[in-house]
């Protein structure tokens, strides 16, 4: 008699437990994202999207990790794919970056122990925790060289990039891996080539001496590429 009364009570307790995990008896899972190194460049937030939901991240000042969860949880067995809203790989291989800050690239972390997949199925792991890392876009810095008939020329970008060695008869150059937006640069000659004297001009600074700032106009065309290194015989 006692056993027959206990069975309905146990069934009721199990039903209550399942209901607490989500409607219809299915467990539900929040999708939590931590964004690292998002810079405050005042050029729009990072907006991530999955399962018809959006999540917006605006840079903190000073820079700090930002952790948020999408507004609704997803049920056990549902798939997810957290990407910048509007991100598309085009048929020609180019990428539409989606809703990212203009001068930054934000993508799923590849650094251990933060390299959890940004896509998967709810229930594969105990929780859904995704990390996105942001880094500045680097824009080209370089230009042309004239009159370089000998070896020995070395160039540098301030104390940041270089020096690089340029071989005789080279007609163009790029220096370093690039320059972030709103960063100053200044190309100068460190070592003159044998028997030659080289000078630097161009850039987008007022002094026309190979210096300037990687400003908005320069980034729209991929960087600064109008620097000229002119070499003439020593007198």
> What share of residues are in beta strands?
35-45%
How many helical elements? 2
Radius of gyration: 28 Å
End-to-end distance: 115 Å
Structural class: mainly beta
Question: From N to C, what is the helix and strand string?
Answer: HEEEEEEEEEEEEEEEEEEEEHE
Widest beta sheet: strand line-up:
5-2-13-11
**How many separate structural domains?**
2
CATH fold description of the largest domain: Immunoglobulin-like
Shape verdict: elongated
Q: Total strand count, please?
A: 21
CATH class of the largest domain: Mainly Beta
* Quaternary organisation: single chain
Helix content: 10-25%
Which consecutive residue ranges, at least 5 long each, have pLDDT under 50?
1-23
Reported CATH architecture of the largest domain: Sandwich
């Amino acid at each position: 008699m006692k056993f027959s009364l206990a069975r309905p009570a146990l069934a009721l307790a199990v039903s209550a437990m399942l209901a607490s995990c989500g409607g219809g008896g299915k467990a539900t899972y929040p999708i939590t994202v931590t964004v690292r190194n998002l810079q405050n460049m005042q050029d729009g937030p990072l907006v991530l999207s999955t399962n018809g939901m959006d999540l917006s991240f605006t840079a903190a000042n000073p820079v700090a990790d930002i952790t948020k969860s999408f507004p609704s949880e997803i049920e056990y067995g549902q798939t997810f794919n957290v990407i910048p809203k509007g991100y598309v790989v085009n048929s020609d291989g180019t990428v539409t970056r989606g809703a990212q800050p203009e001068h930054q690239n934000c993508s799923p972390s590849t650094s251990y122990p933060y390299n959890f997949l940004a896509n998967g199925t709810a229930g594969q792991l105990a929780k859904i925790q995704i990390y996105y890392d942001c880094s500045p876009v680097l824009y080209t810095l370089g230009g042309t060289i004239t009159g370089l008939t000998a070896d020995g020329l070395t160039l540098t970008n301030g104390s940041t990039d270089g020096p690089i060695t340029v071989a005789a008869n080279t007609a163009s150059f790029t220096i370093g891996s690039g320059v972030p937006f709103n960063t100053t640069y200044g190309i100068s000659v460190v070592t003159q080539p044998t028997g030659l004297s080289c000078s630097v001009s161009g850039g987008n600074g007022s002094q026309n001496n190979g210096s300037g700032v990687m400003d908005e106009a320069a980034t729209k065309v991929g960087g600064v590429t109008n620097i000229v290194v002119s070499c003439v015989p020593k007198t």
